[in-house]
Design a protein that fits this description.
single chain, alpha/beta, two-stranded parallel sheet, 14 helices, about 45% helix, globular, binds zinc ion
Length: about 325
């Protein structure tokens, strides 16, 4: 929120335009999106929607006019440059609206984006835990949700869209050790009376391989995001290898291209480690993308930690433009 206010001021005083024209910074800003469209009224995790179709189109238009847009094929040549403000557009997870809503906009604006997909979601569609939790809480018919012993106090269901309740339950999940996650989801299913989201629930949730081949043919890059979207650093080296190598193998089988780019699920500095980097090198991955904000200067380059900044529905127009003008402050 503070960034939104600062960005608004930065824009209204004319300072942003002035600085943008002066071209002060050098480097690469990589934007990351998840879903495009309207979250309101859907039962899933609203936090995953990054922008409406209109806002996304406006953002792409701004990038095309004011930035040097690049894709992974350009990265090797960028390294030696001391000048230039480059931007890259990426998407994580593989939601179907990427194909139905984002691709037509990218095509009409002439922007080439990179889509990181979890191949297990494409091969065996099911709801990911964040969307399943949101769906279970929003389908609940009780006025309050009793999640003892997982949570001391009941979760109140007093707002119409239940956003606060969804956030509270998601927070518990994120703090649990791996072996208790399945039990917790079962408990939420029971406490809400919704049960677990069964097969068939996610039929139109993710892109298909056919859609991803269309994306590839339209000049988009498809990268890896593991098979089942775990936090890699929490896993044994053997499981990390399975998640990364099998993801690369499925991409190669279906798209006839090697996996050269990869984004870490969750993507904060604790989500990947030295073992992850070693497996990426073994898999032939050239670029690994994190997700904790910031940008990369070419004199501070790390091919396995190319930083990305989140675009979210709260990212106002002035805020978005400020990210591109002064990433050291706003990215
Ligand atoms: Zn993800």
């Amino acid at each position: 929120m503070k960034k939104a206010i600062a960005a608004d001021l930065f824009e209204r005083t004319g300072l942003r335009r002035l600085l943008h024209g002066a071209g002060r910074w050098r480097g690469l800003v990589v934007l990351n999106y998840h879903r495009i469209g309207q979250a309101a009224g859907t039962p899933y995790d609203h936090g995953l929607w990054s922008a409406s179709a209109e806002a996304f189109a406006g953002q792409m238009r701004f990038l095309r006019r004011h930035m040097d847009l690049v894709d992974p094929a350009d990265l090797a040549q960028l390294r030696g440059r001391s000048r230039g403000r480059y931007a890259m557009v990426t998407f994580d997870d593989g939601y179907r609206d990427n194909y139905e809503s984002a691709l037509p906009i990218l095509r009409s604006e002439g922007v080439r984006a990179t889509f990181f997909v979890a191949t297990g979601f494409i091969d065996r569609p099911s709801l990911p835990w964040w969307d399943e939790i949101a769906w279970m809480v929003r389908s609940c018919r009780q006025p309050r949700l009793d999640l003892r012993p997982w949570l001391e106090r009941p979760v109140e269901m007093d707002e119409p869209d239940r956003e606060r309740a969804v956030r509270s339950v998601l927070r518990i999940y994120k703090g649990l050790p791996g072996e208790r996650l399945g039990d917790f989801l079962d408990a939420v299913g029971t406490a809400t009376g919704s049960g677990r989201a069964g097969p068939g629930h996610a039929d139109r949730f993710w892109m298909t391989w056919e859609m991803l081949r269309d994306m590839r043919d339209a000049g988009m890059t498809i990268g890896g995001h593991t098979v089942s979207h775990p936090v890699l650093a929490n896993m044994s080296t053997a499981r990390q290898r399975e998640e990364i190598l099998q993801c690369g193998q499925r991409l190669k089988e279906e798209l006839l291209q090697p996996m050269e780019c990869f984004s870490y699920p969750v993507g904060n500095p604790a989500a990947f480690d030295e073992r992850t980097r070693a497996v990426l090198a073994e898999a032939g991955v050239r670029w690994g993308f994190s997700y904790y904000g910031g940008c990369r200067r070419f004199d501070d380059w790390d091919p396995y930690d190319i930083r990305r900044v989140a675009v979210e529905t709260e990212t106002t127009g002035p805020w978005f433009r400020s990210i591109m003008t002064l990433p050291a402050v706003f990215a």
